[in-house]
Design brief:
Layout lengths: L1 H9 L18 E3 H17 L4 H17 L10 E3 L19 H14 L10 H17 L24 H16 L8 H4 L1
Antiparallel strand pairs: 1-2
Length: 195
């Protein structure tokens, strides 16, 4: 079953820069969720079956989507990126979706801390991935609701009608925060946000 899943992963269509398409029916699109769907499995497989190119490819997915979806003003990540810029939701210049969807960033944060369990300490991308993770957490804690301790479904629009605090995203952020602190990727003061 593991080898079948890896065969499917290796034949997944890719963007021109080597990023996995979200699905075959979503051409040229990378979504933050995709990183959790592929990278933790990919690096554990690479570790168990001594396939070091899997470390490189999984790290590439993390770095590539960060480069295309990170908003420099907020430090948050847009849910998706369309390389072709043809989707209705894609910004005409950047190809990014329009919102910072809490659950998508949660999947991405969890993927990073789980990938770091298997990515070798000497891997050339490890420090870049740690930087991405720390910057993401710095941004996320700025958007945590002070009354409930939760995060909103659309992170930067707490006061928007219909937006709500979202349990799944909040749980994913707490997982990433707590594991990041326990593993030494984050400073201990982030524990207050997790609590």
């Amino acid at each position: 079953a593991l080898h079948l899943l890896m065969k499917q992963l290796k034949t997944q269509p890719r963007t021109s820069e080597g990023g996995f398409w979200h699905k075959k029916i979503y051409p040229y699109q990378m979504w933050l969720d995709d990183i959790y769907m592929s990278a933790p499995f990919y690096v554990e497989y690479a570790d168990r079956f001594n396939e070091s190119n899997g470390f490189d490819d999984a790290a590439h997915q993390i770095l590539l989507i960060a480069r295309h979806t990170r908003d420099p003003q907020t430090g948050l990540y847009y849910h998706a990126w369309d390389e072709s810029k043809m989707q209705k939701w894609a910004h005409p210049q950047t190809g990014c979706s329009t919102h910072f969807w809490g659950r998508a960033i949660g999947w991405y944060a969890m993927a990073i801390v789980d990938v770091l369990d298997f990515l070798p300490a000497s891997h050339q991308a490890r420090n870049w991935i740690l930087t991405i993770f720390e910057r993401m957490i710095q941004a996320l804690v700025q958007f945590q609701d002070t009354d409930t301790g939760l995060w909103y479904q659309v992170l930067d629009q707490a006061s928007r009608e219909g937006n709500y605090t979202e349990a799944s995203a909040s749980c994913m952020f707490v997982y990433a925060l707590a594991k990041g602190i326990r593993k030494g990727y984050l400073a201990p003061e982030y524990l207050d946000a997790a609590r």
